[in-house]
Specification:
This protein has helices spanning 2-22, 45-54, 121-130, 135-139; strands spanning 32-34, 57-69, 76-79, 88-92, 107-119, 145-157. By secondary structure, it is of the alpha+beta class. It has one domain. Strands 2-3-4-6-5 form a 5-stranded mixed beta barrel. The protein starts with a helix and ends with a strand.
């Protein structure tokens, strides 16, 4: 009986997770996630890096290309960093909304707060696991790093 109950509970969880991702609208131009925003006044990733070189916090709109999305439920995206370097991590305020899997390759404008901060080894490993990295790749993360992190209130697909 315990096995049957556990199997039933697991099935309900899997159905709920798959339906949650289905309810996220597909990433088409004009689709909004979170707070409604427009693209007016957005800066690009190079301008963001320049602003954060002068001040450790920037609040406003940023435009960029999505290169990765959390495989578990769309709880974060990574935006391409122009030039060199790892993509910039974008999470969503209070986990209030999620991204669809088809957002990779799309250009988005997000409104929120960008900060330069230290990301612990544990956090990096957690995000790597959520992104679907294998155990070997996760084990190679052994040092904290200082990087740009963005907490977005809203995201709109531009193209």
């Amino acid at each position: 009986m315990k096995r049957l109950t556990a199997a039933f509970a697991a099935m309900i969880c899997l159905v709920a997770l798959s339906r949650a991702q289905e309810e996220i609208p597909s990433a088409q131009p004009g689709v909004q996630y979170g707070k409604a925003i427009n693209k007016d006044g957005a800066i690009d990733m190079q301008a963001l890096a320049a602003k954060l070189a002068a001040d450790s916090v920037y609040t406003g709109k940023v435009e960029g290309k999505v290169v990765e999305v959390c495989k578990k439920k769309g709880c974060f995206i990574r935006i391409e960093r122009e030039g060199a370097g790892d993509p910039i991590l974008v999470r969503f305020k209070d986990y209030g909304f999620f991204m669809p899997q088809d957002i990779v390759g799309k250009t988005v404008v997000l409104d929120g707060q960008a900060k330069v901060k230290e990301v612990s080894v544990a956090q990096q490993q957690h995000f790597a696991e959520d992104a679907g990295k294998n155990a070997t790749e996760i084990a190679q993360i052994t040092q904290p790093k200082v990087d740009i992190n963005i907490i977005a209130d809203g995201v709109v697909v531009v193209r």
